[in-house]
Amino acid sequence: MKIPVVSIVARSGTGKTTLLEKLIAEMKRRGYKVGVIKHDAHRFEIDREGKDSWRLTRAGADTMLITSAEKLAMVKQYPSGEEPSLSETVGTYCRDVDIVLTEGFKKSAMPKIEVHRREQGENLLCRDEECDPALIAVASDSPLDVDVPLYDINDAQGLCDLIEERYLR
């Protein structure tokens, strides 16, 4: 069985983690086992109160992983110094969940929901900077003219409906 993966992408400071917390809680409310993988392009330390990994785990993630070029947090050290692919990480560490939500991985081929805030600018990563065919929806705090479904940035229920319809039925 292939586990569906949906990536939440946006510029830094846009609200990816906040939206993920809401999505996790809604998916858990619906009875799903949820894996979360947060991409970190830098070196990281985990499980300190207030950090994203701590917040996402507290939100209800059944499996919480963070990957960077040097570590995999569950915690697993790997000597090669190379970050595993998203597919490899999901296949190795998320076999016991119904769905994996990721934060980041904007260059992956996985389905993506882009978070947009007007204060961050009008341009979308997945449409204006390049046209990413993996974009399935946009969650925004303002109206946009986009070729994919547009949701309010706080509409976790609507986004979960979309995810459930496309990937969990």
How would you describe this structure to a colleague?
With 169 residues, the chain is an alpha/beta fold. It has one domain: 3-Layer(aba) Sandwich (Rossmann fold). 28% of the residues lie in helices and 24% in strands. It has helices spanning 16-29, 52-59, 86-93, 125-129, 156-168; strands at residues 5-9, 34-39, 63-67, 71-73, 76-77, 99-103, 112-116, 135-140, 150-152. Strands 5-4-3-2-6-1-7-8-9 form a nine-stranded mixed beta sheet. β7, α4 and β8 (135-140) form a beta-alpha-beta unit. α1 (16-29) runs parallel beside α2 and α1 (16-29) crosses α5. The radius of gyration is 15 Å and the shape is globular. It starts with a strand and ends with a helix.
Helix content: 25-40%
Named CATH architecture = 3-Layer(aba) Sandwich
Mean pLDDT score, rounded? 87
What is the level 1 CATH name? Answer: Alpha Beta
Task: Describe the main β-sheet briefly.
Answer: 9 strands, mixed
As for the CATH topology, it is Rossmann fold
| Continuous helix count | 5
Brief descriptors of the model:
169 residues, alpha/beta, Rossmann fold, 9-stranded mixed beta sheet, 5 helices
In short:
This protein is of the alpha/beta class and 169 residues long. It is 28% helix and 24% strand.
SSE layout and pairing:
Layout: E1 5-9, H1 16-29, E2 34-39, H2 52-59, E3 63-67, E4 71-73, E5 76-77, H3 86-93, E6 99-103, E7 112-116, H4 125-129, E8 135-140, E9 150-152, H5 156-168
Parallel strand pairs: 1-6, 1-7, 2-3, 2-6, 7-8, 8-9
Antiparallel strand pairs: 3-4, 4-5
